[in-house]
């Protein structure tokens, strides 16, 4: 069995990781690190796991096979400066610290960008992975087939809505229930932090892309999920667009191209991203939906672990939607 450590065990992404890994047939959780909860039962924080005989610790086991960093954004580097792991330990970071190419080399470690649909072969060989952002995952999966075929020739307009869990567990003025319930708002219009990684991935496939990705992120009044729509010029037919997308995702078990319109309940509590296409005049409208805590975070991190160890990409991730 592969021994796993989780750093920053009290947050939403760590909770999802624990739920996935306790049912993964090839791993064993060696420790869950949380300085604020050391000695407490994991089930006291993640209350659906009240039956689990596991406690948080403030001790780091350095000889685990893989460690997941589920720390707040900007904290992974500080943690790695203070704690070292064995040469054989693989690291999967879920924060935004190492996602851009200019930041991907840190303390002698090279971090590979962990979007399996884009970098599967590099992930298989990697020692260290940085997980993509949740919005970034949904938007990249909407655009990459067009980029590979060189068909992103005009500006791309993106509008996406995320659930409250995207803001993390720490309460804020826009995340507590009385504000969020029956409410809707946008934030960080045109300058969201995920735009950098999206742009790098697009240019990885279409190096001459020099247009803008105009992104409006929104807060929805639901707990989890991302519903993203993107549109751009596309002079070919809808059938030709579907051919591009089906071919691109042929070897991707968790990204599915659908002929019918989409809604969030199709993917919440699963590791799937669903894609739908429509043609309106010379515009191609792409809808991309996923669960921000699974395909947008912890589920994709487990995908990356599976690939790094040479297992089936779907190992431990065959989840069903909670439709009602």
From TrEMBL:
It catalyses: N-acetyl-L-glutamate 5-semialdehyde + phosphate + NADP(+) = N-acetyl-L-glutamyl 5-phosphate + NADPH + H(+). Pfam families: Semialdhyde_dh, Semialdhyde_dhC_1. SUPFAM superfamilies: Glyceraldehyde-3-phosphate dehydrogenase-like, C-terminal domain, NAD(P)-binding Rossmann-fold domains. It is an enzyme of class 1 (oxidoreductase). The active site is at 134. It comes from the Bacteria. Its EC number is 1.2.1.38. Coiled coil: none annotated. InterPro entries: AGPR, AGPR_dimerisation_dom, AGPR_type-1, NAD(P)-bd_dom_sf, Semialdehyde_DH_NAD-bd. GO terms for cellular component: cytoplasm. SMART domains: Semialdhyde_dh. GO terms for biological process: L-arginine biosynthetic process. It is found in: Cytoplasm. CDD domains: AGPR_1_C (cd23934), AGPR_1_N (cd17895). Residues 3-126 form the Semialdehyde dehydrogenase NAD-binding domain. One of its GO terms (molecular function) is N-acetyl-gamma-glutamyl-phosphate reductase activity. Keywords: Amino-acid biosynthesis, Arginine biosynthesis, Cytoplasm, NADP, Oxidoreductase. Belongs to the NAGSA dehydrogenase family. Type 1 subfamily. Catalyzes the NADPH-dependent reduction of N-acetyl-5-glutamyl phosphate to yield N-acetyl-L-glutamate 5-semialdehyde. This is N-acetyl-gamma-glutamyl-phosphate reductase. It comes from Dokdonia sinensis. The gene is argC.
